[in-house]
Amino acid sequence: MKISGPTNPNLQSLIKELKTCSITNKVNIWKRIATELEKSTRNRRKVNIHQIQKYSNDGETIIVPGKVLSMGNLTKQVKVAAWAFSEEAKTKIKDSITIEQLMKDNPKGSKVKIIC
Q1: Range of the domain at 23
Q2: What is the pLDDT of residues 18-74, one digit of tens each?
């Protein structure tokens, strides 16, 4: 079986941007996110809201290199960035953004926590 990596053109361009941002800003967080997103869909991270609730603190920025699923409730004030959100997870998370937007807002990746 030939391993081809992600075939979604949007994901391919995001991975390329993440690697470029990592090199230009000399920050390893974006390279780590790119490596996680390069995995096959089957091996990509899936995180439920209750895991975000458990491992985050108020005011933090959380990044999920995969998909956020809707199991659980989020009572903390956190900003969540991910590659994809389920429809129900979007309604439960008040402050959700894309990884691309987070990378543009915070190119140094400071004060960002990865939840896998």
Answers
A1: 9-114
A2: 999 999 999 999 999 999 999 888 888 899 999 999 999 999 999 999 999 999 999
Sign of the torsion formed by the C-alpha atoms of 82, 86, 92 and 94:
positive
DSSP codes, 36-91: HHTS-TTTSEEEEHHHHHHH--TT-EEEEEEEEE--S---S--EEEEEEE-HHHHH
* Residue that is written with structure tokens 């894309």 in the block: 98
- Token pair, residue 110, equals 């400071």
- How many domains does the chain fold into? 1
Q: Is residue 71, in this structure, part of any structural domain at all?
A: yes
